[in-house]
Amino acid sequence: MRPAEMNGPELSTAGQTTGPGRRERQALLAIAAVLAVLVVWLRGGLQPQAPLEALARRSPELSVALADGRPTLVEFYADWCEACRAMAPAIDGIERARRGDLDVVLLNVDNPRWQPELERYAVNGIPHLELFDAGGASVGHAIGARTAGELDALTAALLNGEPLPQLAGVGAVSRLDAAPAPASSPGPRSHG
After folding, report:
1. Mind telling me the catalytic residues?
2. What is the CATH number of domain 51-173?
3. pTM of this structure
4. Is residue 186 very low, low, confident or very high in pLDDT (cuts 50, 70, 90)?
5. Could you tell me which residues come within 8 angstroms of residue 146 by beta carbon, excluding any fewer than 6 positions away?
6. What are the boundaries of each domain within the chain?
7. Quick one: which of 101, 90, 110 has its CA closest to 152?
């Protein structure tokens, strides 16, 4: 072995290393790059996190939201639901703009944890919004995709304690205790 090889790679007149050390480093860098790409691909790709998933992760627990003295908008959604994904930027914008005044809670219908809520609120299609006043009482629901303007109108009504806007697929919760009971009820099978 020549003395120059024992001290490390030789430098060419341009200042670049030559010999086996440079090739080994390039091979190691190439292998590291391939492994990094493989890890990123296996973890879901290079796509940024969708607003729907990000919002669901930072959403408060339903029981906490209904007890904190703020109106609450609950969205029942699924990751595969195109209408839910289309509404996600508007829901995210509302949550950011109204943070501290309004709770936005997302419940994934594919998670068995939310089965009691799915039954309680009769969720049979998504997106399904349940709307609650500041006292945690249900004031209505909205079924189907909503535009940003419709979502703004719904949240404004919640925040101002006003009746929900008249939109297709939006219904207020009726108060059965508000109607006076008939003096005598003949029963459900009596038609006359």
Report:
1. 81, 84
2. 3.40.30.10
3. 0.65
4. very low
5. 87, 90, 127, 129, 154, 167
6. 3-42, 51-173
7. 90
